[in-house]
Specification:
- The protein is mostly beta strands and 119 residues long.
- The chain has no helices and eleven strands.
- Strands 2, 4, 5, 6, 9, 10 and 11 form a seven-stranded mixed beta sheet that branches.
- Strand 9 and strand 10 form a beta hairpin.
- The mean pLDDT is 95.
Length: 119
């Protein structure tokens, strides 16, 4: 099992910044990808940003140029720096860890942290 603990959410005005952190513990070997998803009320959960082994990153089009995902491998922690926040960024943000396994992949999730952007 992998345990993920998020922190850093909160309330911010449009144009502001927040930094989310996600600390991984437990059976963290063979994690191939870490990422951040978000889910707004009435909407499906969507991938915001991901970082894979080797440091390659990927972003949703809606956050490109504003959000940056990074990791501190020594501390098993992944970060999401969110700048120029917009009201439409309001959502619960979930940390995700993915392991590739023989039959596909296993996803692990954090408990979620609320991000609210006021206009």
């Amino acid at each position: 099992q992998v345990q993920l603990v998020e922190s850093g959410g909160g309330l911010v005005r449009a144009g502001g910044s927040l930094r989310l952190s996600c600390a991984a513990s437990g059976s963290i070997f063979a994690i191939d990808r870490m990422g951040w998803y978000r889910q707004a009320p009435g909407k499906q959960r969507e991938l915001v940003a991901a970082i894979i082994s080797g440091g390659i990153t990927d972003y949703a089009d809606s956050v490109k140029g504003r959000f940056t995902i990074s990791s501190d491998n020594a501390k098993n922690t992944v970060f999401l720096q969110m700048n120029s926040l917009k009201p439409e960024d309001t959502a619960v943000y979930y940390c995700n860890a993915r392991k590739n396994v023989a039959m596909g992949y296993l996803d692990y999730w954090g408990q979620g942290t609320q991000v609210t952007v006021s206009s």
